[in-house]
Specification:
By secondary structure, the chain is an alpha/beta fold. It has a single domain, classed as Aldolase class I (TIM Barrel, Alpha-Beta Barrel), CATH 3.20.20. The chain contains 15 helices and ten strands. Helix 2 packs parallel to helix 3, helix 3 runs parallel beside helix 4 and helix 9 packs antiparallel against helix 10. The termini are close together.
């Protein structure tokens, strides 16, 4: 099985070639969601969605172009009427597949588990904190979704959205994950565009909590990530490290480099080869994608991030 982050490391060497290789795509199937999580506002953005025929054509073109890994995201991907058939078709084409879901639509998850390689969801070990962030009744469904994924021997990553409201149960969440055999990924709040607010950044309790858990075995991030996250609230790069290697596709087919730059060409309108070729280098000096995951550090050949990847077996 091609690992969730291993594909990034495998093609990182292409940074030395004249043309980067697009290897990973995040497909936002829909912006709709059946939850109203406190930390997310994706459901407020309305966008037309591709038909199943258009989605299949997109997947074939991505495969022909050499894309290896697709992560299905939302909104909530299982709200899309063609989610199950899309995931099955993507696996038929040979993609390594991850899905980031809220873990509530268990019937759809059960149908797709045989075809995915990695299951990801947001989770807080304290039920009160979890349901205050995600809604009453969501806690036990997420536990069921995790259990279902474990039974089918899937890689599991839970997202812990860090804020003053959730930081109190961070260590309990990590300990629970270690006991149950999955990993935890720290993420800043989506409302702050993947960067910490000045208030959070200056909160001594918050920073000490991050520093204290830096070596926890259930934490997916390297010490380098945590050090920069704690000290700066984001990871700074002089140049976008994932440009050309990773892309995000919106529900209607717009293609961009990352979540902050989704104003690319529409593959359904001009063709997917042209849309990929039209990806322009982001104009940002701060890589928020690097803050969202460790891929940016891998593409920069940061030794600590590579070591962490190998140790975690991802």
């Amino acid at each position: 099985m091609l690992g969730y982050m291993k594909s990034s490391l495998r093609v990182a060497t292409t940074k030395f070639t004249s043309r980067p290789r697009l290897v990973k795509v995040f497909f936002m199937m829909t912006r709709r969601c059946n939850l109203r999580c406190e930390y997310c506002s994706s459901y407020l953005d309305h966008e037309p969605e591709m038909s199943l025929r258009q989605i299949k054509q997109m997947l074939r073109k991505l495969k022909d172009h050499g894309v290896q890994h697709i992560t299905f995201i939302g909104g909530e991907p299982f709200v899309h009427q063609h989610a199950v058939r899309t995931i099955r078709y993507a696996k038929h084409l040979g993609f390594s597949i991850a899905i980031s879901t809220n873990g509530q639509l268990l019937s759809s998850l059960q149908k797709t588990l045989p075809y995915i390689d990695l299951f990801a969801t947001a989770f807080f070990a304290d039920q009160h904190v979890h349901e205050r962030q995600r809604g009453v009744g969501t806690y036990h469904n997420v536990l069921k979704a995790i259990s279902m994924s474990k039974k089918q021997h899937k890689k599991i990553i839970t997202h812990f959205i860090i804020s003053k409201e959730t930081i109190t149960c961070l260590e309990d969440t990590l300990n629970f994950a270690m006991k149950e055999g999955f990993f935890v990924s720290l993420q800043p709040r989506h409302k702050e565009f993947f960067s910490l607010t000045p208030t959070m950044k200056d909160d001594e309790i918050h920073l000490k909590s991050i520093q204290r858990i830096a070596s926890h075995p259930a934490l997916i991030h390297s010490r380098t990530y945590l050090k920069q996250l704690g000290e700066q609230g984001h990871i700074k790069f002089n140049d976008c490290p994932v440009f050309g290697h990773s892309a995000v596709i919106s529900p209607s087919g717009n293609m961009g480099n990352c979540y902050d730059f989704m104003q690319g060409e529409n593959g359904n309108e001009i063709g997917w080869e042209k849309a990929i070729a039209a990806l322009s280098r982001p104009g940002c000096s701060t890589c928020r994608y690097g803050c969202h995951s460790e891929d940016g550090l891998l593409f920069k050949f940061t030794p600590d991030a590579i070591k962490n990847l190998v140790v975690k077996g991802l």
